[in-house]
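Give me structure tokens for this 453-residue protein.
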Amino acid sequence: MSPAAASAGRHLWMHFARMHGRDGADPVPVITKGEGVHLWDDRGRRILDGLAGLFVVQAGHGRRELAEAAARQASELAYFPVWGYTTPPAAELAERLAHLAPGDLNRVFFTSGGGEAVESAWKVAKQYFSLRGKPTKHKVISRATAYHGTTHGAMAITGLPAMKKDFEPLAPGGFRVPNTNLYRHPEFDGDAEALGRWAADRIEEAIGFEGADTVAAVVLEPVQNSGGCLTAPPSYFARVREICDRHDVLLVSDEVINAFGRHGHPFACSRFGFTPDIVTCAKGMTSGYGPLGAMITSDRVIEPFLEPGVTFPHGYTWGGHPVSAAVALANLDLMEREDLYGRVLGNAAAFEATLRKLEDLPIVGDVRGDGYFWAIELVKDKATRETFDAAERERLVKGFLPRALLDNGLYCRPDDRGDVVVQLAPPLIAGQAEFDEMEQILRHTFTEAWALV
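Here you go.
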């Protein structure tokens, strides 16, 4: 066991991870280096990064110009808050994001990360309606299985009961509607448009049931992460937009994962043809070279906050950190210079086709996603779409897959917060060679996993 693994086993409280035995027979994996689309661990093994860290490292690892941008800014001004002040990189980045965002989303509120951006969006929605003389509009509607963050407010919006049960009571006001998992709605016979109409109508039904005078916002991801890269047709988002407008409800596009090229656009709402009132984003904004998130609002949303004497009493110490903002600007320059948006659009079909080769395996039930964001759903019975029971999930998702995939040379994400899926979201610099490598490692690992079922 390496010194780092031993220290982690004794002292590090890891996120979303079991820690039993990590100081003994099951040591913590230690990643020591990244270069391009690959990682290296403390044993010298090269590992393909099939998840861009955590849907973050758009431009790839080891980009010296991003590290140098951080060093330049830190040497000039390492920190100052945006609490009534600004710094040049924070101001420039706000303008840059406003230009990249669709429609009139022109006002940028910086956070440290994605969960804080979602938390900020809910608070803005509540105060927005309060300032407009509608203080009873405070509820939020989101989708089943959707993940929106871990703070008490963001978790109340999250649609994962098992994640919430140990922390209840949470902030009141979160309500759930069905998601758009076409594979788990066989009654629609593969008709995504029909499922989209039905699912959008459930949003209007929920607004009516709760009372439009109590609902402040609908929060959804363009491609839903938890549950396994759940997509919907553009007509679904257009219908939700109409519903929100009809009932005076704000539409929030949670793009913490989806933004900054993951779907070939700066913001994925553009990819799916709708303009929200608020966008939340983080992760790929800096390619992971600094922590930063943002909530971007429309001119309509900011308007009542511009009245004399009005303040939004909310903020974060690290929001708009000048070093992270400088890194984000350099990262956005890099992405445009290397046309990473075009690269995703040009390679997405090839990525999909390569992953679909795995559909011949008996354990693979569905392959779904968009752009550089895909999930493979694993099943026990392909004909009936039967999923795994609790004991099988424990053995497969918590036990076998994470270690086997890493040992076989691929870092990606086995997840059973909904049905059992393996998620893939490589750096945007990945191409066919990496797609092929992923497919071969997944094929080998899934074949091993099937023997355990």
